[in-house]
Amino acid sequence: MIQGTPPFISIAVLMRLKQHEGCHDLESIFYVLIHVLTIFKGPGVVRTEEDYKKLSSMPPVLEWFDFESMDHSFNRMARQKMGHLSDFKAGILRRMDSYFQPLAPFLQGLFDAFFPNFDYFDNKMTHSKMIELFDGEYKRLKANGT
């Protein structure tokens, strides 16, 4: 049985290709981060319909919350998520508000660490690597006064 919030569950678990492991929790954190960085304009400010019109399309992450997809199939949701990740720069990074753009290289680095060969079924993230990446980004932001 799959437990959790479906849009944030790892692709391999959604497709029932792997049993839940710690790396899948880390992948969930990654999806929450994508959600926050594409849905918000800044701290506590959710994007509006006007904001989305300026982008010419909605951030793909909103499609992950399509309840019809959730009811239909977790496999369908996983395939949809893989499609959005396959063009990470255009599909995710360019959909981030300008407030969050300084975090784009960090998010790209996370993506590269999770899926170095674009194999969405074999997440390569470890707890120590995730801590290292977050710590490095914190130090970078602090040094830049961000």
In a nutshell, what does this entry contain?
By secondary structure, this protein is mainly alpha-helical.
Number of self-contained structural domains: 1
The H-and-E topology, N to C, reads as: HHEEHHHHHH
Give start-end ranges of low-pLDDT stretches.
none
What percent of the residues sit in helical stretches (DSSP H or I)?
Answer: 40-55%
Task: Summarize model confidence as the mean pLDDT.
Answer: 86
Oligomer: single chain
Please tag this protein with its features:
mainly alpha, two-stranded antiparallel ribbon, 2 strands, 3% strand
3D architecture notes:
With 146 residues, the protein is mainly alpha-helical. The protein has one domain (6-143). It has helices spanning 11-14, 22-39, 49-55, 67-72, 74-86, 88-91, 104-114, 127-143, and strands spanning 40-42, 45-46. Strands 1-2 form a two-stranded antiparallel ribbon. A hairpin with a 2-residue loop joins strand 1 and strand 2. Helix 2 runs antiparallel to helix 7. The longest helix has 18 residues, at 22-39.
